């Protein structure tokens, strides 16, 4: 019999695992190549995946909502039209299925996975029906080690507990629910052996709380930024920028653009100023690899966009060549797509420079973490009116100052070059009229 595994796809270079959000097909459905079969959440977006071939959906090996599925792990089987669903055998390799993790429990034990694998010959036909039946009818209780330990502590019979985990596996919540009903949970909390804390969950076990599963985006943010902060030698450069001229020009432009429904933001000016600065200091427009530096010719600016559960960094490509109006329109479009999780990989992969603006939240200044493989990121704070002493006349005046901090990868950009880049950004923002030329 001919069949093939449908695998968790690799949808971006940084993707190592994903979440199967929803199946768009069910067992027995006849499909054609190109039909949509599932929604997958990656570290960046939620995307629909297509069937690679014609056929009939066999077994759905992974339930909707399953977290942390490794790329290239089997998620379903696809049968040819000559087959029937009833004669299909599961093609998943046990070591790959073992990588599918329950979001609230430990990894599924390899021994448990072996009981999910059907014996098959070269044509994938069952050799020994009696062996197959013995596998299907096994009386072994599947439970996580944590669930077994808690059941033992609460003096509950694990064989009498119904599991709600994958394939009926008994998980911690199942045991605790039974303990709560029976009253045994109180004895669990007071057992002296629990003074031996084994995990963070143990520390907070007695406190009212809710566990929030890590989605693909949060896992990716955790991994990439931890890697960035621990492996990239960051250094930081700071400047205060007077933005009174910028605000005056912005108000004038937006008044003229009202009829066209366009409103230029301070962030649009910052994108343009940074793009021009990278052209003025071309040696800072670089990306670090482990064995060479990529020096980009155009200014591709990534902009951090906050969305529910994390952030994305869509890119304004060729921003040095675009007008403020073009940047404003494109940024609004990308922001909406980011918040709807509809960005394409081509819209967020790349760039050499990032901007993270928390000024709209009243944050005066902060240090941002570099987004690898980029070599710099600009942290933008709020504009605040402050008393300023004129260096030449000594006169006191009130100016609107905006704090910016440039985080730099010292492997790719040295201190003097970083300072030149930041001063160029400052000059462009304090003389915004040059960005209209």
What's the SSE blueprint?
Layout: E1 3-7, E2 17-23, E3 30-31, E4 36-41, E5 46-50, E6 55-60, E7 69-70, E8 74-79, H1 94-97, H2 110-114, H3 129-136, H4 145-153, H5 172-182, H6 185-190, H7 200-203, H8 216-231, E9 234-242, H9 244-257, H10 266-280, E10 286-288, E11 293-295, E12 301-303, E13 305-307, E14 310-312, E15 315-316, H11 324-339, E16 353-357, E17 376-389, E18 396-409, H12 415-430
Parallel strand pairs: 12-16, 16-17
Antiparallel strand pairs: 1-8, 2-4, 2-7, 3-6, 4-5, 6-8, 9-18, 10-11, 12-15, 13-14, 17-18
Helix pairs in contact: 4-5, 10-11, 10-12
Written overview of the protein:
The chain is α+β, with helices and mostly antiparallel strands and 437 residues long. The chain folds into 3 domains: 3-136, RNA polymerase II/Efflux pump adaptor protein, barrel-sandwich hybrid domain (OB fold (Dihydrolipoamide Acetyltransferase, E2P)), CATH 2.40.50; 145-212, no CATH class; 232-436, Chloramphenicol Acetyltransferase (2-Layer Sandwich), CATH 3.30.559. The protein has helices spanning 94-97, 110-114, 129-136, 145-153, 172-182, 185-190, 200-203, 216-231, 244-257, 266-280, 324-339, 415-430; strands at residues 3-7, 17-23, 30-31, 36-41, 46-50, 55-60, 69-70, 74-79, 234-242, 286-288, 293-295, 301-303, 305-307, 310-312, 315-316, 353-357, 376-389, 396-409. Helix 4 packs parallel to helix 5 (172-182).
Précis, in short:
The protein is an alpha+beta fold. It has helices at 94-97, 110-114, 129-136, 145-153, 172-182, 185-190, 200-203, 216-231, 244-257, 266-280, 324-339, 415-430, and strands at residues 3-7, 17-23, 30-31, 36-41, 46-50, 55-60, 69-70, 74-79, 234-242, 286-288, 293-295, 301-303, 305-307, 310-312, 315-316, 353-357, 376-389, 396-409. The chain is 28% helix and 22% strand.
